[in-house]
Design a protein that fits this description.
Elements lengths: L1 H7 L1 E6 L6 E5 L14 E6 L4 E7 L17 E2 L8 H13 L4 H8 L10 E3 L5 E3 L7 H12 L4 E2 L8 E4 L12 H13 L2 E2 H8 L3 H10 L3 E3 L21 H10 L8 E7 L5 H14 L3 E5 L3 H14 L5 E4 L5 H13 L5 E4 L11 E7 L7 E2 L5 E2 H12 L2 E6 L4 H8 L4 E5 L10 E6 L5 E3 L2 E2 H12 L3 E5 L8 E4 L16 E3 L4 E3 L6 E3 L12 E4 L3 H11 L5 E4 L9 H10 L5 E4 L12 E6 L13 H13 L10 E6 L5 H7 L3 H15 L6 E10 L5 H19 L2 E13 L2 E10 L2 H17 L4 E6 L5
Helix pairs in contact: 2-3, 8-9, 17-18, 20-21
The structure holds adenosine-5'-diphosphate and zinc ion (ZN).
Length: 777
């Protein structure tokens, strides 16, 4: 009888902080069994010192391990579970796919405030009773349990109201922090975006508190203002929507699919063909059927634009917006509200919105489905497209993947009939695709900054006519290389061995990989020289150059540096759309989905950038990037032009980009992949691992690993290439290596990884991860 009781009271809980495992706990004697529900957040003791951790009760009630004495759950964090069984099941599936634990997945998808350990109970008068007082005192706990059952006691997470801090967008010049810690704080904020004071303290230690205050006094750091939701978007208020013939045709195909259970569809429509309205109308129909819809965009700025458009198109609908740079309390609010929502909702957001607890989803749309930002390759590695696919099939929903330049794998799936294909061939209204020309830099060398004469003249003309131009250069900062005048050595990051980029506005040399910065001018590590020549140019320099040579022309810049604080990107885009500047210079951020009717000229300064990368998708990437960028020109009534500067005028991609010929490009690319054995004809996985570069045991470890890898490849029937140094072979004082695994199925790749994992885990110096279908190789 006793065992029976004990077995019934053993629960499994997924821990939301390191070690992220799932452990079994007994239910405590002081609370009745019926208070516990799967999906409920609870506090559990962990480790020697019995520190309290946040955990989530799992659905499974495992059998009691006989010989082990179990610890008990300490206390529930809520009276009703915030996580539904369906939701937990989805996360369990994600965890299984990525060979990781439910705890780790939860830790990366739950809003931070839902993972925090509160500091005590609150009684009815909101007076705090700290947990420490009587954690092992049965009687005390039993009394509290009585209050709990009577609803007189609560636990609340400490207020998540702490403001996020950010670097000022227009700091007093020149920037002058004094202490080293102050620079460290600045680097952290520059590299990772806004943070709260306590998270800065957690990262940099107590000393950062004073530094932070000093920086705030000097107005170098300030609290983030929540970004104002930009008004407008491209659907004008009160506009009567009259679908174009192609939009009607697309909807005729897609609408019935909303009633036919799971299905996936590729909406291949050229830039400016009006895909957005098709998505919004499908969402309307889904809501009318009583089912929720999720619309995903690759960038926050685009998600917000979509949100505005949706609010105009669907007044009265319950529409939510979720993206990574919303504040912690706002994320928690959206999360909890969505979980409790009784009506169908439209959720718009970036990839992480897939992890919001939306109920009964009838439609999932991924706009710009080819975009690499749908893949997350840090912390929790996942491809949003795959999760969307799984979710749609589970919910019997329609999945729509939209793009002008689909992922080669998606188009291949469409040709094979796994995904149905709907096409849109023409732009809305009078606008036509722009004329694209390639400028051979060997014949027409850059004279005007990085610009050939042809481009410079076209730019001047455009500005003179009162029209707008976008200039893309996929390098941020002022100059990517700084060379010592006397010995020609370049300046490198001491942690990563990659070149440092000079940022003139910050007046620092910055490592784009680890985020640390050093003062400018540096001292040459080889000859102690202090004269340096900046070589090459980044967006900052292009902007400066244009401002100098076209003095009466307003220039704006869009890149990661100019858009640090929330809402800044939208502000720049909105200012440009309203004609407050003639020229917008930027990185690839420019190419994504924006609609500027007055832009008639697009210039790409370095069309070749990226072609030489050791990645089987480099042609696909360049094709997508340049066609998308071209798509920003001539979207209004006036015809557009595009100039792409190159030193490889014969590259096979160019002709397809010029003709905007996706299918031509696809045919070439797919036959090349078949010939050389690349996806979609094989599955690829990347096993990454790293260790400190000073580790003495590394030679032994690598030798053991090589041997094990041979066995692993044979057992799992895969091809394993490596170990080879990663593209970034050293990062933050760690050596980085990788295996490229080719297989006919995912299972083989996973098995190969599982074969090696025990060896990785044997050394605490080693960190390893598996990336299925890697985007960055
Ligand atoms: P895509 O996403 O396919 O590149 P968009 O959806 O941004 O294209 O549409 C391009 C432009 O056409 C936008 O400015 C949009 O407001 C406009 N547009 C779309 N559909 C219609 C329509 N039916 N009538 C008038 N304008 C439209
Ligand atoms: Zn570095």
């Amino acid at each position: 009888m006793q065992t029976q009781d004990a077995r019934a009271s053993v629960w499994s809980a997924a821990i939301l902080c390191q070690p992220y495992s799932s452990l079994s706990y007994a239910l405590p004697p002081y609370l009745p069994v019926h208070v516990w529900h799967p999906g409920m957040r609870v506090l559990v003791p962990m480790g020697q010192s019995n520190k309290l951790c946040c955990a989530v009760l799992e659905r499974s009630v495992p059998a009691l391990p006989t010989e082990k004495k179990l610890k008990s759950i300490f206390w529930p964090l809520e009276k009703e579970a915030v996580l539904s069984a369906d939701y937990l099941e989805m996360l369990e599936n994600v965890a299984a796919r990525q060979l990781t634990s439910l705890g780790r997945v939860l830790a990366s998808v739950l809003p931070a405030s839902l993972r925090r350990v509160p500091d005590g109970w609150r009684d009815r008068k909101n007076k705090k009773i700290p947990f420490s007082s009587g954690r092992d005192n049965r009687e005390f706990l039993s009394r509290l349990a009585e209050f709990w059952m009577q609803g007189e006691l609560d636990v609340k997470s400490p207020g998540g109201k702490e403001p996020a801090l950010t670097v000022s967008s227009d700091p007093p010049w020149p920037i002058r922090p004094q202490a080293r810690v102050q620079w460290a704080v600045m680097d952290l904020l520059y590299a990772h975006g806004p943070r709260t004071a306590s998270s800065i303290r957690a990262e940099l230690g107590q000393g950062s508190t004073k530094a932070l205050q000093a920086l705030q006094d000097k107005e170098l750091v300030c609290p983030c203002k929540p970004g104002d939701e930009p008004e407008g978007g491209s659907l004008e208020a009160g506009q009567d929507f009259c679908f174009s013939p192609e939009q009607k045709e697309a909807l005729k195909h897609l609408s019935p699919r909303l009633r036919q259970g799971f299905g996936a569809c590729l909406l291949h429509g050229i830039t400016g063909s009006g895909k957005t309205l098709v998505y919004l109308d499908l969402a309307r129909q889904s809501l009318e059927m009583g089912r929720s819809a999720i619309l995903l965009a690759p960038e926050i700025a685009i998600a917000r634009q979509l949100y505005q458009q949706a609010r105009q198109y669907l007044p009265g609908a319950a529409i939510y917006l979720h993206h990574g740079s919303k504040g912690p309390s706002s994320k928690e609010k959206t999360f909890v509200e969505l979980g409790q929502e009784k009506k169908p909702v439209l959720l718009i957001g970036t990839r992480s919105a897939l992890f919001m607890p939306v109920q009964d989803t009838g439609l999932i749309v991924l706009d710009e489905e080819h975009d690499e930002s749908f893949k997350q390759d840090q912390t929790l590695i996942y491809q949003a497209k795959e999760i969307a696919w799984y979710l749609a099939s589970r919910e019997e929903a329609l999945l729509v993947l939209g793009s002008a330049t689909p992922d080669v794998k998606t188009f291949h799936a469409a040709q094979a009939g796994h995904v149905s294909l709907v096409e849109m061939h023409s732009r809305i209204g009078k606008s036509t695709l722009p004329q694209v020309d390639f400028v051979d830099l060997k014949n027409d060398p850059p004279v005007f900054g990085a610009m050939a004469k042809t481009c410079a003249e076209a730019l001047k003309e455009t500005v003179k006519r009162g029209e707008q131009a976008v200039i893309m250069h996929n390098r941020r900062g002022y100059s990517p290389v700084l060379m010592c005048e006397s010995c020609s050595e370049t300046v490198k990051c001491a942690n990563c061995q990659v070149g440092l980029t000079y940022h003139k506005k910050r007046n620092r040399l910055v490592c784009h990989y680890c985020g640390i910065s050093v003062s400018f001018p540096p001292v040459c590590r080889h000859c102690r020289g202090s004269e340096f020549i900046p070589v090459g140019q980044g967006t900052e320099k292009v902007e400066e150059f244009l401002a100098r040579h076209l003095p009466d022309t307003q220039v704006l810049r869009l890149d990661r540096d100019s858009t640090r604080s929330p809402g800044k990107a939208e502000k720049i885009l909105q200012d440009f759309a309203q004609g407050q500047a003639r020229i917008l210079v930027g990185t690839q951020m420019l190419s994504k989905g924006h609609s500027f009717p007055e832009v008639t000229l697009a210039i790409v300064l370095d069309g070749d950038l990226g072609l030489g990368l050791p990645d089987y998708r480099s042609s696909e990437r360049i094709f997508q990037l340049l066609v998308q960028l071209s798509g920003r020109s001539g979207r209004g009534e006036k015809p557009g032009r595009v100039f792409i500067q190159t030193r490889n005028p014969g590259h096979f991609c160019w002709q397809y980009i010029r003709d905007c010929d996706y299918k031509g490009f696809f045919q070439q690319e797919i036959s090349r992949r078949q010939k050389f054995g690349y996806p979609p004809f094989v599955r690829l996985g990347l096993i990454r691992f790293s260790f400190p570069d000073t580790w003495e045991g590394k030679a032994d470890f690598l030798a053991g690993l090589r041997k094990k890898a041979k066995q692993a490849a044979a057992v799992s029937k895969v091809t394993m290439l490596g170990p080879a140094p990663a593209v970034l072979s050293r990062l933050k004082n760690r050596e980085r290596h990788q295996f490229l695994v080719k297989s006919s199925d995912w299972a083989g790749i996973k098995q190969a990884y599982l074969e090696l994992r025990p060896l990785f885990e044997r050394y605490r110096q080693v960190r390893a991860s598996l990336d299925l279908d890697p985007v960055n190789m």
